[in-house]
Design brief:
The protein has nine helices and seven strands. By secondary structure, it is of the alpha/beta class. It has one domain: Rossmann fold, CATH 3.40.50.970. Strand 2, helix 5 and strand 3 form a beta-alpha-beta unit. It is globular, with a radius of gyration of 18 Å. The two termini are 20 Å apart.
């Protein structure tokens, strides 16, 4: 089943097990197809974060109403690593925020699907992101607003690991702990590669989990490609009181595609037609539309 061809309606149910894993593979090939179409994108990060977004949106973690994108009681998700927009848009389409046909317009003139997400154009986007180091401060502000309004929704934010070299993230982290924002969950896509090189060759990030613990976060390390482990981590975050949670999701840049896995060049890599179809074969899915 191609989740991008069956828009979830009122009877939508969360996916689990093999169905969720299959959906994540579809998100991967959809994002790659979009990057091929546009001639630009961020293949490596799209592939590394696919299981995280699949779990959040298609595994039922986020409380949403796609037919009411601004429903006041919705959970907020902020894609801080906004350059991985191909994956993000594919996930929003799979969850029913807009028709899958829209994905074919990725980065076209006048398209709603910019290279960086725009909340004024694409339903389901909470904040304009792309310049790194912005998403977590926005998420902290949202979580604090939720607290002040005595609401019960939660805030989730996905950051890249290289992005954490921006100091604004750590100012936001201190603020989150000070205000005991237990409605905030930070997810780090720990794929160990950033633009140009490995993170540890650029500015060392380890020990990643210990840094978050030192800033007062309840911190969990998981395999970011294991849906059951991710679901358990999100459940643990929901039950944690008095402090925010950070989930360090250990992932592989370019996950699932052998010629892209763990290769810095694929941070910006654009697949050829031949590579796209080879990737689809490896992922066990079909290219979602004709190229």
């Amino acid at each position: 089943m191609n989740p991008l061809s069956q828009m979830p309606g009122i009877d939508w149910k969360p996916l689990a097990g093999a169905e969720l894993a299959h959906a994540a593979q579809w998100l991967r090939i959809s994002a790659m197809t979009m990057t091929h179409h546009a001639g630009i994108g961020h293949t490596g990060g799209d592939l590394s974060a696919a299981d995280i977004l699949a779990t959040l949106y298609l595994g039922g973690v986020l409380h949403l109403r796609p037919d009411q994108p601004r429903w006041p009681d919705r959970d907020r998700f902020i894609m801080s690593k906004g350059h991985c927009s191909g994956l993000f848009y594919s996930t929003l389409a799979a969850r029913g925020f807009f028709p899958a046909e829209t994905l074919k317009t990725y980065m076209d003139p006048m398209s709603k699907l910019n290279g960086h997400p725009d909340r004024n154009k694409a339903p389901g986007v909470e904040a304009n992101t792309g310049p790194l180091g912005h998403g977590l401060p926005i998420a902290v502000g949202a979580a604090l607003a939720c607290r002040m309004q005595r609401m019960s929704w939660r805030v989730y934010v996905l950051t890249g690991d290289g992005e954490l070299q921006e100091g604004s993230n750590w100012e936001a982290a201190m603020t989150a702990r000070h205000y005991e924002l237990d409605n905030l969950v930070v997810i780090v896509d720990r794929n160990r590669i950033q633009q140009g090189d490995f993170t540890e060759s650029t500015i060392r990030m380890d020990p990643m989990a210990d840094k978050w613990r030192a800033f007062g976060f309840h911190t969990v390390e998981v395999d970011g490609h294991n849906h059951d482990a991710l679901l358990a981590a999100f459940a643990e975050a929901a039950s944690t009181k008095g402090k925010p949670t950070c989930i360090v999701a250990n992932t592989v840049k370019g996950k699932g595609v052998s010629f892209a896995e763990n290769k810095p060049a694929w941070h910006h890599g654009v697949p050829t037609k031949e590579q796209l179809y080879a990737a689809a074969a490896e992922l066990g899915v079909e290219v979602p539309w004709s190229i």
